[in-house]
Amino acid sequence: MIVDDEPATIHVVQVFLEDAGYSHFITTNDSTQALDIILKQRPDILILDLCMPGKSGFELLGEIRSDPLLRYLPVLVFSAAGDAATKLHSLELGATDFLPKPVDPSELVLRLRNALAFKAYQDQLAYNDRLTGLPNRQLFLERLSWTLRLAQRHSKQCALLQIGLDRFKQINDTLGHEVGDKVLKAVSHRLTTSLRESDTISQLNSGQDSISLSRLSGDEFMVLTSEINHAEDASLIARRLLEAMKLPLALGKLELFVTISVGIALFPQDGSEGSALLTHVDLAMAQAKLHGRNTYAFHSVETNTRSFERLNMETALRKSIERKELELHYQPKVDLNTGRIIGAEALARWTHAELGQVSPAQFIPLSEETGLILPLGEDMLNLACQEAVKWQKIGCNLPVSVNVSSMQFRRGDMPSIIRSALQASGLQPENLMIELTESLLMENAQSNIDMLRAIKNLGVQLSMDDFGTGYSSLSYLKRFPLDELKIDQVFVSDLPDDSGSAAIVSSVINMAHGLGLKVTAEGVETAAQMAALKSDGCDHFQGYLFSRPLAPPDFAALLRQKAHRSSITHKLSIAS
Ligand code: C2E
Ligand code: MG
Ligand code: MG
To answer: Quick check: 208 pLDDT over 70?
Structure first.
């Protein structure tokens, strides 16, 4: 990192060093920002100008040396004032070396090389675990302070996962310390590999080392992750580590099954200081051992309970999907003018033997986070198409609407999945409507256009769900090949009294009609809401006022009854 108030000097120094083969540079000409940048980006070495406005190099050097985390950062100072007093003062303040300005390129390169070589040697001695090559306790503690400080500043969450081998003492006692060492090496390799995978899988890799493994002592390893969004991210890592240990370790001729127990503490919930977190993560690991080993435990009891409930639910959902136990209920879509059923939305329903009825608001997000939405979504699509064909057999030619979530959409294979569902069921494409939420469509709006066109080209209809809850760009709204827009129930529920919602609803209807879209209002519960929507010119509605989502036989019965009634009214009108 180079700090100099003159951009020209920074440029010259950087060119010298690039010629010498160095490639990653951090530069600033604002010395007041420098300390922040150092803390954030952690340079290996600092090249510092002494004479700068705002904050002088002396001041900055003083601050650097009084920060325990920066005490040993190599700092090469350079100055146009080459007098003995300046030199002495900077060395006194803790400069690693002094260079006069103008800088002699070869001298700069050599001094930099020497300072870095010394640092590398020191780091090697001080920071590496001899046996496994992993960072040791010292380096871990320094990283922890860095990480917590940054997390505090940017209000981020972090997690500590302490890993202990189960019954390691037994291995040492019965097989000897040499085997014990081999086990530790093999375990560290296994864990490192698994972390690298979970890093990309959980997409935690926002920084260079957003996740790192250290060996603190004996059979105690520690994972530090600097960016997690919720506790689940940490349990995901723990589960992957546990999974990775399921296969035996191959130690020469010996094959050994070794399991681990993992404790998890979260920052800031479980402690705002490193010391508190370390105590708590240790307690959490003890809990995991108490729970029978080969498992993980959070420090906080509530997090633990929630995490295991979720895990239970995930396992149950996985099984139910495999056994095709999920069902669809159908909510009629009704024409506001004629009162006729003009279609139905398919809504997933899950009843589990132990968990009971689980709401889609719970299991849909869970299935999205775990990837289960892919098989689930495909099943639901197939089921809905088959059901719509059955309606035709009782004389009702109605389109069925199916919800598609962002993960399904982003996979890019939606067109072929839809095509096979249509083929397998024999449903005509125009009798299938795909619902995509506003927030899904507006995220990466530009790149979504192609996918929407590809789906639309199959001949199916497209609907934008939950309109008003995301942030729509009107220019995209115009370019998406949509057929329908669904006004979210939050606006409908305030009708007709809330003048704000009323204004929004009537403008949305006008705008949608201007774009050639039909409008469906969701969640209509009262006659007053229906009347307001009708007077605004809304086309269709769904809601408890007309019907709740119904099991397939009930929906079919409703269709028959309506068909019967309308044929009676039809006959009556002919008779009169
Ligand atoms: P959504 O697509 O916006 O569905 C409308 C939700 O409003 C449904 O909730 C429906 O039961 C409910 N609803 C309908 N009329 C009324 C009413 O008058 N009052 C009130 N308070 N609510 C009403 P549900 O079935 O719980 O589904 C919730 C969400 O879960 C759906 O919102 C949809 O986003 C998602 N979902 C459901 N099934 C599937 C599915 O098969 N695949 C995907 N990807 N998502 C699904
Ligand atoms: Mg929907
Ligand atoms: Mg909706």
So the answer is: no
